[in-house]
Amino acid sequence: MSSGYTKGDFAVFLDAYPFEQPWKAVKEESGMNNTTRIVYTGDKKYVLRVYDNHRDAGIVQIEHMLLAELQKSELPYRVPQPITNRDGSTITSSADGKLAALYDYIDGERPSALVESHIEGLGRAAGTLSQAMQRLMTDSCVEPLHKPYYELEQSQAVTSNAVLLDLSASSERLSKRKQELHLLIDERARLSSMRSAFAALPHQWIHGDIVFTNALVHEEHITGLLDFEFCTVDLRAMELAVVLAEFPETDSERAIEKLSLFCRGFGSMVKLSEAEINLLSDLIKLRMLDVFLHFAGRLAEGLDEEHIWDEQIARASFVCSWLDLHKKELDCLFYSYLYEVEDHCYQALS
């Protein structure tokens, strides 16, 4: 991905902007889906994002329209602000159709999942964003292009169970994941059968990918949320489920503590319904299945090496099993921090 770019490739995009001084594009970090460069010009800094995983200008237009609306929401942190090019557009394309966008630089470091104030702060920031995005549901006429997570069989149709089994049999390394793979195939069938129950839950615009690598922090305070590329109308509770999928680990006591901190932060801003809380563990599994199938598709297309999907199989199967093992404790935790009735967890466990 990013290793294939030259200065000339970035010039195709950056020369479209009316910089007053010469620019320099520096590789400081880059994600799995896109190529990112920090752009220095005079005393100003910007972020150039080149979209590697699609060439659909409609997706970027929705991202930018939502960001424009969120700029009016008086959030306690910053979100990306697209810069207009010489043609008056916030999207710049190359001759071969590749898309890029330039954003104001937001100061801050990545928060750490090892710092309690960062975990609770990110939870509070996610809840604040959820409130703002809920208002966009009625104020915005933008139509989403991404399908909700629970439409798994539509969005991941190319990665059928037959494709998964063929991929697994394609190498000695992957064939050793047979047990985990069958666990995930069984979970896929179960979650797909729950589509109607998921679809009945409250919907709104969500970010869809709030994780620690998509946030910025200064000392103990969240200063920015990034990467709104996957915004869509989905289940309100899915915003929370996406992040909670990050926390399960072999040290279960520490994992529960992190989940509690994040839910306390999120719950201080947004409360969920009983139906949402009862299905929250399944929504976390839904996130894990979606990621697992996404990387299966990338392997099938020759975009990734097999070790990446191997890691995703291991992670997804671990999280699904971990959620089952700790279900009662998690239900109590979710009711304690996310439901209006504070003592409901005792009813849930009775």
Automatic annotation (TrEMBL):
SUPFAM superfamilies given in the database record: Protein kinase-like (PK-like)
Gene Ontology molecular functions: amino acid kinase activity
Pfam families per record: APH
Positions of transmembrane segments: none
Coiled coil: none
Similarity comment: Belongs to the pseudomonas-type ThrB family.
Name the record gives this protein: Uncharacterized protein
Organism: Paenibacillus baekrokdamisoli
